[in-house]
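Good morning N.,

You mentioned wanting to compare the apo and holo forms, so I went ahead and generated the holo version with phosphoenolpyruvate. This is what I fed in:
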Amino acid sequence: MRKPVFAANWKMNHGPQDTRAFLTRFLAVYPPRDDRTVIVLPPAVSLAVAGFALRDRPDVQLGVQSIHWEDKGAFTGETSAPMARDCGATVALVGHSERRQLFGETDDMTARKCAAAVRAGLTPLLCVGERIEERDRGITLAVVLRQVKAGLSRLDKSHIASMAIAYEPVWAIGTGKTARPEDATIVHTAIRRHLREVITSRAEDVAILYGGSVTAENAAELLAAPEVNGLLVGSASLDADTWARIAST
Ligand code: PEP
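and this is what came out, ligand included:
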């Protein structure tokens, strides 16, 4: 049975000292449980500290927010998938809308990054989502499915079956506007249908997360929506107690 996934994307917050303090508090208030997968995604500079803090808590996985598509080389400022793995990461976020919008990440790059993650033994968590003008033009599903197809394009079927996908409407990220649960279900259902075409029955293994202004107050309602298998949370994951509440939904 696929377990619900709760992923905390800290973005450019929590350096090493804050990360240590956060995880000390979070691990104290969030006892291990095996009915869900919890992932924290600190900035790259905090990965090693987080990996050390989580060494005795295999129930909490570590993820990297962005990787380069090459394993090493002259790419100043970048983090490779093997380096993240070396810090203890098991998950790589790929294609977050802030990467796409602010740093020019294209569908081709997300495809290469998913492949790099798999090469290093990391599970890709591929983010997809439409901008408000795309929603207004009625092309949400076309945009999302284009991004999904690109992200999967360099992976073989077994790797697709073990990855996760996050639907994050861009207009809902960091804005306080949340998609209605029924709107999330429409998009998640379309993604699932595409996965069935590609990997048949193993499509059911892929967790499809919703992200966009999730809070401790709206988490349960979103998680209850059909085809919503988890939550990707930004701002509301920055406080250890709030994150423990959301991860316990
Ligand atoms: C995100 O960054 O993935 C996100 C969903 O952010 P927020 O929860 O702040 O909207």
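The longest strand covers residues 123-128.

Happy to go through it together on a call whenever suits you.

Best,
F.
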